[in-house]
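Aim 2 progress. For DegT/DnrJ/EryC1/StrS family aminotransferase, the working sequence is reproduced below.
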Amino acid sequence: MEPVADPVVPAPAPPPIYVTQPELPPLQDFVAALEQIWDSKFLTNGGQFHQQFEAALCEYLGVEHVSLFTNGTIALMTALQALGIGGEVVTTPYSFVATANALLWNGLQPVFADIDPATFNLDPARIEAAITPRTTAIMPVHCYGNPCDVERIEAIAKRHGLKVIYDAAHAFGVRQDGRSILRHGDLSVLSFHATKVFNTFEGGAIVCRDAAMKQHIDHLKNFGIADEVTVVAAGINGKMNEVSAACGLLQLKGVDAAIGKRRAVAAHYRRLLAGVPGVRCMPAPVHEANDGYFPILVGDDYPLGRDGLYQKLRDAGIHARRYFYPLISDFPMYQGIASAAPENLPQAAAAARQVLCLPIYPGLEPGAIDSIASLIKSS
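Predicted structure tokens for this construct:
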């Protein structure tokens, strides 16, 4: 009888590499916090972890007041309500769709202005050109955590009597000239989603400057309730629960180390991708960045093109993202707006055609970065 050959068992495929992986607090610390919550029976509505987390964030970020939210989108919507914004709001087409959706949900008209191709942020000159008699506010985004030109935006707002609300979802811990970028504008809004540099599983916050505004925001996120028998505004339920607040409080202890590891990943990418034909990395930031994203621009002279490289990486288990593509202005609910016309947004359209965000997170090993860069170079 002929011996039967052992079947050839293919080697298991390596696990996929995503753009980001959420940081988690030490399990034993998180369990201890859960036990405290369990014993207290205080699950939400401003419990001990909520209060401690707000105070800790103010200290870490160097800001006066923070109001915690269940997520960044509800925080954006509430920020617009808190300032009584109406009419038109100048904003960017180059962002996550929640930026503009928050405007529509408040019955506001987004007016899209083009971006600066060097920073991917709103171009101040295009902001001013987009202002009409109906404009009441500007809502810029610190895209990828790169600070907007806050001085020029502030000057424009002052000149035209406008409010400024920064979508700072990407900008946790970002500092410019030694001070938090969140100190600018009338309000700044953070996201603590699991994909962000700093997360609470789900969560968000509004940063403001004075106690009266903080109290107003706190009323709005809690149904407008001022006390047991008093409702002072038509609020919603946007409160952060105690589990998320406890997670955030624990995460703060390790966030500086995590950002440091992200910077090392970004520096490694820049070294490996320098000089690759058709590929351009954003310049290393001059401000104190958080390296929440690592976008590259894939030009027409790259052999595969952007979408070909995207698919090549996907086929290798590397889940890069075309982030942000499509533009917000290309989605059906926005296409009918005059400012959404492609000819109005040439720089944003060019960025959306070329951008590819590579994986970046503290646990990304140097060998994985080497493999990603090798795949990009071999095309």
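The first helix runs from residue 27 to 40. This observation will guide construct design in the next reporting period.
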